Amino acid sequence: MKSATGLLLAIAMIAAPAEAKSPPRYGPLAYSNACYEEESGDFSGHRLLLWRLDYDLGFFEWSEGPAELARTEELKISEDGHIQFRIDQNQGSGPTTDYLDVSGTITEEGAEIVIRGKPYHLPRVTNYGKTPSCPALEKKG
Question: In terms of CB atoms within 10 Å, which of 7, 84, 102, 130 comes out highest?
């Protein structure tokens, strides 16, 4: 009986998903699925840069045509990693603001964010070198 119970416990431990680690409370964090298109050289994707001090400061970069960068507004990060913020897509250059709300979860490993109802995965970046090239799309022949 003991061996069957032990076996069941071992199986349960293996089958249980690993719990994601909460993000560090202090320091810089970068999450990105950004890449450069080889043919055009255009930036593609999203990048979230956070500086966790006694307060949290963030910047969000995205592309819808040319790359855009905006400081996060109303940034809130909970202890368990839930994040929400908004960005002004006009970045103060237009006569009105055009807010985009972003929410999701950040961990030590990555960020899962939702923009306009669409989910995005941004792996955590620790190598701040050159932004990688985008994966080549398969050519249909």
Answer: 102
CA nearest to 29, candidates 47, 46, 49: 49
* CATH number for the domain harbouring residue 85: 2.40.128
Q: What confidence tens digit (pLDDT) does each residue in 83-129 have?
A: 999 998 877 566 667 889 999 999 999 999 999 999 999 999 988 78
- pTM of the predicted model, to two decimals? 0.77
Helix (H) or strand (E) holding 52, with range, is strand 46-52
Q: Which two tokens stand for residue 75?
A: 């940034």
Strand partners, 56: 52
| Total number of domains constituting the chain | 1
Which domain, by its residues, includes 104?
A: 20-123
- Per-residue pLDDT at 127: 84
